[in-house]
Amino acid sequence: MRVILDTDMGMGVPGTEIDDGFALALLLSESDTMTTELVTSVNGNIDVESGTYLSLELLQRLGRPEIPVVRGAAAPLVEPEKVRGAPEAVRREFGHHTPAPGYAAAEIARRVVESPGEITIIAIGPLTNVAAAIALDERVASSVKEIVVMGGVFLGRPPSLAMPGEFNWWVDPHAARAVVRSGAPLRLVGLDVTLQVRLTREHAAAMAAGTGAFGPFAGECTIAWLDKLGRENPGDPEAGEACAMHDSLAVAALSRPDLLTWAPAHVDVVTDEVGRGVAITDLLTRSDAPAPNAQIAVDVDVEGFTSYFLERITAL
User: Tell me, what DSSP letter sits at residue 292?
Assistant: First the structure.
């Protein structure tokens, strides 16, 4: 299976979000069945410049420097004023890395259209690059084998009034709406299931004690992230003890589909500020329901995923 990973990579800077990095590591651990032929960066949890450098750094750390990284969108589709640059400390430490030439949306579109039915996109950041690729060439939606998206909340409540939609869809709701309306084959892995799979300090210790070279780094990053969560949420005693593995579960949707339960749905996305990024989900129970445009994850084998994840990561 040929895969493009679209990511807002943060792993590698102490105290930054770690699940994108684990998703890339998990994907590369499945090299017997999945070929990662491209990584694209996007603005989201981190600015796109930093995310590009960190993707290149992590590929090098994982022994796969030959996989190209193409820089993507620096801001949401209709909000160019939200461009951010990399902190100077990130430029000093990682700025020696050079991405492949071009633009992520154009490279995604080119590869997908040149190989119809062969390439799967795993999108684990805001959907800006994917939406732009679809807008660049209308054949992308019909030529992509599948788009697996980490994003949305479909059966539960939005996380907060300040951020009504799930983060990736809240950052660029117009892009999320464009993708779900595109007609492309979609599987959506939302917070309904990702919040159930948790990485703990005990898991971090197990990774650090693993046989591979990646484990100690992974354990260190996990502890730093949990420490930050604990500091930022002093009233929540569990905040610093475990974190959700959102993005890795999107990879598992391809590598271990048996771990997730799916349901057809018709999904749309709110783009106004009051409900920014909220997923509107029709479970198709009425006789006049619209046609499904996605499969949504509705349940997960937590123990099975955790065992699979730790087995793969500790061996890297």
Answer: P
Tell me, what's the pLDDT at 254? 97
The helix/strand/coil state of 247 is: helix
β-strand pairing of 69-70 with 119-123: unpaired
For the record, the structure tokens of 213 come out as 């070279």
Residue identified by tokens 């898991």 is 203
CB atoms < 10 A from the CB of 307, how many?
12
Q: What whole-number distance in Å separates Cα of residue 235 and Cα of residue 257?
A: 37
Neighbours of 105 (CB within 10 A): 25
Phi-psi region of 204 (alpha: psi -120 to 50; beta: other; left: phi over 0): alpha
The pair of three-digit structure tokens given for residue 300, joined into one six-digit string = 């997960």
Quote the DSSP letter at residue 100. Answer: B
The model carries a pTM of 0.97
CATH superfamily of 2-315: Ribonucleoside hydrolase-like (3.90.245.10)
The dihedral sign for the CA sequence 13, 91, 170, 185:
negative
- pLDDT value, residue 115: 98
Sign of the dihedral through C-alpha 171, 177, 178, 183: positive
Q: Quote the CA–CA distance of 281 and 296 in Å, as a whole number.
A: 9
Q: CA-to-CA distance for 229 and 233, rounded, in angstroms?
A: 6
Report the pLDDT value the prediction gives residue 156, as an integer from 0 to 100. 86
Q: What is the DSSP letter of 238?
A: T
Burial of residue 127 (CB within 10 Å: 0-12, 13-18, 19+) is buried
Residues in the chain, pLDDT under 50:
none
Exposed/middle/buried for 200, CB within 10 Å: 0-12, 13-18, 19+? middle
